[in-house]
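Run log, item B.
One chain of 195 residues. Sequence copied directly from the ordering sheet:
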Amino acid sequence: MTKAKIRKLVTFVEETRLEMDRGIDPPTRKAACVAVIENPFSGRYEENLDLLMEIGAELGGLLGNRCVAALGIEPHMAESFGKSAMVGEGGELEHAAAVLHPKLGAPLRTEVEKGAALVPSSKKMGSPGQVLDIPLGHKDAAYVRSHFDGMEVRINDAPRSGEIMVAVAVTDSGRPLPRVGGLTKDELVGKDGLR
């Protein structure tokens, strides 16, 4: 039985084919999937946030899987990932932390195969229609600069007061036209999550 009470799931796909009048071939692509869920602790302080942690575990796999499917790639072809949450006014920032941090990452890593690096994250309080930024980084090596990026998502009716927007983003590439140096994806080792 699922623990998350999901009002809606929304998937976004961004594909960049042209940048500064230069063709991007193959195009760079990002996908984000957002679950708008009921916040079980809205309007009250709760010391034990285990339920939100378990919800995070459910959503990591669900949202990661949907991102990979939206890109039409095999899991091992995913290159970067990120996670983010926005809590409606009835909740608190710690509710976002409980969903994102203890348990969401492991099932997300399963959906993208490996994922040795920490999953970049952000959390915020918000209201319906507010932009949620999802930071991105290479899934296996945090020092790959070409994959320092982000994706914005917005849902016109979320989060409502008693809700949390939980988002995962996955890419099949880095930024278009990367040229700021640093470790490249072809040089990474992917064992320590850094290089």
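Observations after the first pass:
- Residues 50-71 form the longest helix (22 residues).
- The chain has one domain: 6-171.
Flagged for discussion on Thursday.
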